[in-house]
């Protein structure tokens, strides 16, 4: 058998195991949860990684994980305490294991220096006290024990998890002679036999010289996928070996009740994306059928129209169900920050606690992947420049341990993610001075919100000295542009001496868009609804022409660049020749409509011919299917089969900002 076909599952499960180890170690350090249970979870993750790495021949991974496992086993047996020093060594080893996994998966060069440091740290800990040399209770034979009797009954689904009972029996046999009695009472008739289910059970006998810890380790991978009992046999009662498992004394056995069978499966992301794309095509086809049926007589075609309404409901339900497959808890983004907070706090000699809320809030996988980098930057800013040093906090009457909060919550069709700190807050006067030095435009009496928005200007910073971590405002323009690119918005709230909160508003998914459809000549365009501010019909004298023939629209007391979408996309006039002449004499042209959009802090008025209405559209990647088009962020297919382009309001606003001379 070519076992390389299972590599992908091993790498994915190993990364999840390392995440569980890191989370557990950080939890132990913070004193959260049950210590014994957490250590057991960490141990099992290390044991699983070691076993898989040994199976696939990844020696460096299995060797390093074996050292981890040994240290953790001592902690499980109560012979060692996982203190701050041990946590640091174990976390370093987890980092090295991540690098070794990456090399095994993608190739490359192993960081031998980091690997040597990790091994040295673990070896030093294992040899640093008597616990390393002293026998651990779980790894010694039980005093006065003549042998072990084990009842092992796998769940029918054990094979589906990649576990093989035969491997467990062979592992036990490597530690001593095994007497095995096979129990076939669950074996069905041959005609009903399912080769993918485990039907057999075993009654096993091992000599007393085999350590109990070795037995526990052999079954560690499957203890939640079987009925298992392990009983020590006293020398005076060796005949107990013949007693069936079902009649064993439950009070003397260590029992692990069977858990519910696994109810989830691993599916490649590209398969999910293909399914979502097919459902999108179904939505488009359904819209076409709905449009074609608008002229049918409801009395004559009652059954057909009723079926189309039912199809509409079913399609909408199917679309929501399939989209939910890509929805993941935002915890996938939040989970990397406890480690980062710990490391940065240690590096900066600050005391920081991290509080998270709403980790179960779901968000599209694509959005989660793209929001991580902005969140990392905001977190670094908050720790490096938001929170004061412990002595400063004490002098200000605060707890010397600063608090960073990360929260997520649904709000309508969006998700709100906030990163806050209880530090010194933004300095309004200092920001205004920096803005004046750089000649940044500001109204006469700016509000706090307008002042805080200044930090989003490229290169803006109030820091006296930049660090290699962050600068309050340095790179914030990139943070905002990344969020805007996702169709989101970002704002800052701050109070001096109290703290700062950055609030991010994001769409739940990138595959469906709420849009306003507008007509320009014979073409239809989609304006993302989240950038639309208002629509209006300009009156006489409200449109003016300034330098370079640029046009501006007066909206109340403000002048906005006015862009004609027909000219922007170089569309022909509706009709030509005699038809155009007849249309011109038949009726005067309708006055244009202006739609005001705002993106990345810039406002722009777009001149269109008609507003068609609001609708949800399935977004298609134009660049992947055709090529990149300036001023266009994507495309969709309308109910009549035509392609409608989705306007990139941010790109248009950036390239048609109001000249300073205006």
Write the layout of secondary structure elements.
Layout: H1 7-30, H2 35-56, H3 59-76, H4 84-106, H5 112-126, H6 130-133, E1 147-154, H7 165-173, E2 179-183, E3 201-207, H8 212-218, E4 226-233, E5 254-256, H9 269-292, H10 302-325, E6 327-329, H11 331-334, H12 337-348, E7 351-357, E8 362-364, H13 365-386, H14 390-395, E9 401-411, E10 414-421, H15 428-437, H16 448-452, H17 476-485, E11 489-495, E12 499-507, E13 512-520, E14 523-528, E15 532-536, E16 543-545, E17 551-555, E18 558-564, H18 565-568, H19 577-586, E19 593-599, E20 602-608, E21 610-618, H20 622-625, E22 632-637, E23 643-647, H21 649-655
Parallel strand pairs: 7-9, 14-23, 18-20
Antiparallel strand pairs: 1-3, 1-4, 2-3, 4-5, 6-8, 9-10, 10-12, 11-12, 13-14, 13-21, 15-19, 16-17, 17-18, 19-20, 22-23
Helix pairs in contact: 1-2, 1-4, 2-3, 3-4, 3-5, 4-5, 9-10, 12-13, 13-17
Task: Describe the protein.
This protein has 662 residues and is an alpha+beta fold. Helix content is 40%, strand content 22%. It contains 21 helices and 23 strands. The strands form five sheets. It has a six-stranded mixed sheet with strand order 15-19-20-18-17-16. A five-stranded antiparallel sheet has the order 2-3-1-4-5, with no helix packed on it. The chain has a five-stranded mixed sheet with strand order 7-9-10-12-11. Strand 16 and strand 17 (551-555) form a beta hairpin. The longest helix has 24 residues, at 7-30. It is flat. It starts with 6 loop residues before the first helix and ends in a 7-residue tail after the last helix. Residues 129-141, 237-262, 470-474, 576-588 and 658-662 have low confidence and may be disordered.
């Amino acid at each position: 058998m070519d076992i390389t076909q299972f590599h992908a599952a091993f790498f994915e499960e190993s990364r999840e195991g390392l995440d569980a180890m890191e989370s557990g170690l950080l939890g132990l350090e913070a004193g959260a949860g049950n210590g014994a249970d957490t250590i057991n979870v960490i141990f099992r993750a290390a044991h699983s990684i070691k076993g898989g790495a040994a199976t696939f021949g990844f020696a460096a991974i299995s060797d390093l994980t074996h050292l981890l496992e040994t240290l953790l086993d001592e902690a499980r047996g109560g012979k060692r305490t996982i203190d701050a020093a041990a946590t640091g060594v174990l976390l370093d080893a987890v980092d090295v294991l991540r690098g070794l996994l990456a090399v095994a998966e993608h190739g490359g060069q192993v960081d031998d220096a980091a690997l040597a440091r990790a091994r040295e740290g673990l070896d030093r800990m294992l040899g640093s006290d008597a616990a390393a040399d002293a026998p651990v209770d779980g790894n010694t034979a039980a005093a006065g024990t003549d042998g072990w009797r084990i009842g092992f009954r796998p769940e029918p689904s054990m094979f589906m998890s990649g576990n093989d009972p035969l491997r467990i029996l062979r592992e036990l046999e490597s530690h001593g002679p095994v007497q095995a009695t096979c129990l076939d009472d669950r074996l069905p008739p041959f005609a009903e036999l399912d080769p993918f289910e485990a039907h057999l059970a075993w009654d096993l006998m091992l000599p007393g010289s085999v350590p109990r810890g070795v037995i526990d380790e052999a079954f560690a991978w499957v203890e939640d996928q079987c009925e298992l009992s392990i009983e020590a046999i006293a020398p005076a009662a060796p005949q107990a070996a013949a007693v069936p498992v079902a009649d064993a004394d439950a009070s003397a056995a260590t029992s692990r009740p069977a858990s519910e069978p696994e109810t989830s499966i691993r599916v490649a992301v590209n398969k999910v994306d293909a399914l979502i794309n097919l459902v999108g095509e179904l939505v488009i086809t359904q819209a076409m059928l709905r449009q074609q049926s608008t002229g049918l007589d409801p009395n004559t075609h009652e059954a057909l129209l009723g079926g189309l309404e039912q199809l509409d409901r079913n399609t909408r339900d199917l679309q929501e169900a399939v989209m939910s497959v890509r929805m993941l808890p935002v915890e996938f983004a939040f989970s990397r920050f406890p480690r980062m907070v710990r490391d940065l706090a240690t590096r900066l000699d600050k005391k920081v606690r991290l509080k998270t809320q709403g980790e179960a809030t779901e968000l599209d996988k694509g959005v989660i992947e793209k929001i991580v980098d902005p969140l990392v930057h905001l977190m670094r800013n908050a720790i490096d420049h938001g929170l004061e040093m412990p002595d400063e906090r004490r002098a200000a009457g605060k707890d010397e341990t600063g608090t960073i909060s990360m929260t997520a919550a649904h709000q309508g069709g969006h998700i709100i993610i906030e990163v806050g700190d209880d530090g010194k807050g933004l300095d309004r006067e200092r920001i205004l001075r920096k803005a004046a030095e750089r000649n940044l435009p500001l109204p006469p009496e700016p509000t706090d919100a307008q002042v805080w928005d200044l930090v989003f200007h490229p290169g803006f910073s109030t820091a006296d000295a930049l660090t290699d971590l962050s600068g309050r405002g340095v790179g914030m323009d990139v943070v905002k542009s990344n969020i805007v690119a996702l169709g989101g918005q970002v704002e800052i709230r701050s109070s001096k001496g109290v703290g700062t909160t950055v609030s991010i508003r994001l769409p739940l998914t990138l595959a469906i868009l709420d849009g306003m459809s507008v007509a320009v000549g014979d073409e239809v365009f989609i304006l993302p609804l989240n950038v639309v501010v208002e629509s209006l019909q300009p009156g006489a004298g409200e449109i003016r022409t300034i330098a370079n023939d640029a046009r501006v629209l007066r909206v109340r007391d403000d002048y906005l660049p006015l862009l004609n979408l027909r000219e922007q996309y170089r569309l022909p006039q509706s009709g030509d020749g005699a038809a155009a002449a007849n249309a011109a004499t038949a009726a005067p042209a309708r006055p244009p409509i202006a739609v005001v959009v705002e993106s990345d802090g810039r406002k722009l008025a777009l001149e269109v011919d008609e507003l068609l209405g609001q609708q949800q559209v399935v977004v298609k990647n134009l660049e992947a299917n055709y090529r990149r088009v300036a001023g266009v962020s994507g495309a969709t297919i309308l109910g009549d089969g035509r392609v409608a382009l989705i306007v990139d309001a941010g790109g248009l606003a950036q390239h048609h900002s109001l000249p300073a001379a205006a």
